[in-house]
Amino acid sequence: MKYIDLRSDTVTMPTDKMRAEMFKAVVGDDVYGDDPTVLELEEYAAKLVGKEAALFVPSGTFGNQLALLTHCKRGDEVILGDDCHIVAHEVGAASVIAGVQLRTLQSDRGILNPEEIQSKIREEDLHYPETGLICVENAHSNGRVIPLENMRAIYKIGQQNKIPVHLDGARVFNAATYLNVDVKEVTENCDSVMFCLSKGLCAPVGSILAGTKQFIDKARKGRKLMGGGLRQAGILGAAGLVALKEMTQRLDKDHKNAILLGEKLSTIPGIEVNFEDIHINMVYFNIRVPHKNVENLEEILYSKGIKINPPENGLLRFVTHYWITEEDISYIVDTLKEVLSN
Ligand SMILES: *Cc1c(COP(=O)(O)O)cnc(C)c1O
């Protein structure tokens, strides 16, 4: 059975083009620096986001944690939002791998207050840790895109205080698409950036960490320490090149489909869609009217060929991506309408 999978954009399969490129990829041992496809990917990725160098890493979590390990020394303090991925969804890795302390600030739907960041930067005192890094996230995993003015203000504070800024840009191309700017206009507001080749860009595996040459040279050694020195990784790199060259160009389609899905869902009685949060490919909504099928919605929809995640705090999230078509959206909405009217 073919499923329509709305759980996330992490479920995306590689495209036919990717599989073809993977099949014929020229590879070598990348730990020796011998894999031409990985080298090409890293060079292409660095240029794309306007950084000196880039490194292929196994996952987004790996890239973020490697950034912390590379920027900071043990015991440093990292300033970041309380709802960001590094804090909420990375298994506490910051305390295990980099050995840093996380100083969380309350975020306003992903936006951090620059003045508050400034006020939390440590002075020299026998008792204090040193502030080692500031982290921002764009697009935020709550589906919202952070305004560039906010990123600029935070980067300025980092520079004034000589503290690096890392961008968790897992979906940075979605952010650039929403803002209708070249991705460099987003990534120029940070010293290092991580972005995923998987997720909406459909590569099967992999992320990129980019920054200065000196930073990436150091990160390469940290990647080996973390067990991320991959051998014939060009098989994966070939898919990553398709992701960056082609798949970044079509994300507006997923964003349009998210709005379309939101509009159609909102016509179902009892469904309330958070339209102001549809910036990228995520539709958040709740079902206001009590209905016996709401509790078992996950199973009921599964039996009709639709995969969803259970609600979090009463909120459901449907994610559009390459493998979700307009016809799928009609089927999803018709099916949900029927389930909620029975
Ligand atoms: C998905 C995601 C990550 C982690 O990526 P994985 O490849 O799943 O480890 C990091 N940050 C954000 C904002 C994400 O959405």
TrEMBL record:
One of its GO terms (cellular component) is cytosol. Its cofactor is pyridoxal 5'-phosphate. InterPro entries: ArAA_b-elim_lyase/Thr_aldolase, Low_specificity_L-TA-like, PyrdxlP-dep_Trfase, PyrdxlP-dep_Trfase_major, PyrdxlP-dep_Trfase_small. Keywords: Lyase, Pyridoxal phosphate. GO terms for biological process: glycine biosynthetic process; L-threonine catabolic process. Its EC number is 4.1.2.5. The modification N6-(pyridoxal phosphate)lysine is found at K199. GO terms for molecular function: L-allo-threonine aldolase activity. It is an enzyme of class 4 (lyase). Pfam families: Beta_elim_lyase. Residues 5-286 form the Aromatic amino acid beta-eliminating lyase/threonine aldolase domain. PANTHER family: L-THREONINE ALDOLASE, L-THREONINE ALDOLASE-RELATED. Belongs to the threonine aldolase family. This is Threonine aldolase.
